[in-house]
Amino acid sequence: MIIEQFKDEFLAHYSYAVVSECEQEIILIDPSRNPEPYYEFAKKFEAKIIGVIETHPHADFVSSHLEIHQTTGATIYAHSLTGVSYPFSPFDEGDEISFGKIKLKSLHTPGHSPDSISIVLHHDGRDKAVFTGDTLFIGDCGRPDLRESVGNLQAKREDLAQKMYHSLRDKLMKLADEVIVYPAHGSGTLCGKALSTANSSTIGAEKISNWSLQEMTIEDFVKELTTDQPFIPKYFGFDVDLNRKGASEFSTGIDKVNVLVKPEQLNADILVVDARPENLFKEGYLPGAINIVYGKKFETWLGSIVKPGEQFYLTAANEEQLQELISRTASIGYETFIESAFVTESGDVIMPVMPLEYFITNPDEFTIIDVRNENEAKKKSIFKESLNIPLGELRERIKEIPAEKPIVVHCAGGSRSAAGSSIIAAEFGAKIPVYDLGGAVRDFNSTEK
């Protein structure tokens, strides 16, 4: 028996292949949008992919379960409550899948969603591992507030938090201490708030270190779990519904993106997403462009700033990055929204250079916009007279920004303020200067200025 863990570092997502070496068969769990790594893995072992298990309809990435089924004939397994549109085999509480000497058992573990399952792997007469999806993470458990308005089954966060309390204690904590925990996400995901950087653990270790498995009343658990959760990107609900339907073929979606050598004329009504480094962007960009910098969080911020269904141009600094970003855009199901993609070297609009020394001595002469998340702003104030509008809400709340003074935009480290300042500049840039404080924000301490 072999368990192979795959990681999408950009979305902090883990997927798995369970291999029966004696039968040369594989079952996948929570696969990413691009199925090629799983096909290559199967070829390595000369094995056949016979099944794909979805622990729940994911909100933060698009799964390739339907494409794998259509390509290999593998059976898709999911809880019957999921209400899917694709052909599947129900995998409800107590159901089992046997292949070779391996047995996979379904546990219904609602909490992150009403239809969440965890999968216990039984081998050589004992439980060896549990694939916990978004129910139990290393150091945390799944957030309960993503199904209040999406999916076929909707539930209030308090109700799901109560279910999570029981799923953890009545199902997962009853497994043997030596059972290995394999979650669907690691540190960096927005599906939880305090995940460890570790990619696996054991039930016993989590009983000791994971806050959600400690002894407490259900009331205290619900309060803790529903407090200070991260923001919810715009694309999350879209991905839940897309995963319930099943996404189209990955490579076909990529090939359909209209890649231009050089755009002759752009539609001024269509948003331009410019992924070049902020310094290159500021030196010259296209009118109205938003600077979502090429980096580890590109797809998260793309899906937080651009709403599902909104067409946009995608541009990058070179062809290699452009192709990578098209694929990463597809990982959240946004490839069909790309009007066209192209490489940009410069543009006609220039962002003014931040007058840092004058700002330090005269902060009252500026309107300061803090684009950090609300929780961040509450915990650590950087400038006393600042207006907090989280980056994911900025386009919708742009009219709340006063236009009487020059505007300075900041975040915690510089990447979000690049996007925020470009959004604000698209609205105010012709009237008043808009500046990005950028990485200089690190020079300001945590005391209020």
UniProtKB/TrEMBL annotation:
It holds the Pfam family Rhodanese. One of its GO terms (molecular function) is metal ion binding. The keyword Phosphoprotein does not apply. Transmembrane segments: none annotated. GO terms for biological process: glutathione metabolic process; hydrogen sulfide metabolic process. Residues 266-292, 362-449 form the Rhodanese domain. Keywords: Metal-binding. CDD domains: POD-like_MBL-fold. The keyword ATP-binding does not apply. InterPro entries: Metallo-B-lactamas (IPR001279), Mito_Persulfide_Diox (IPR051682), POD-like_MBL-fold (IPR044528), Rhodanese-like_dom (IPR001763), Rhodanese-like_dom_sf (IPR036873), RibonucZ/Hydroxyglut_hydro (IPR036866). This is Glyoxylase, beta-lactamase superfamily II.
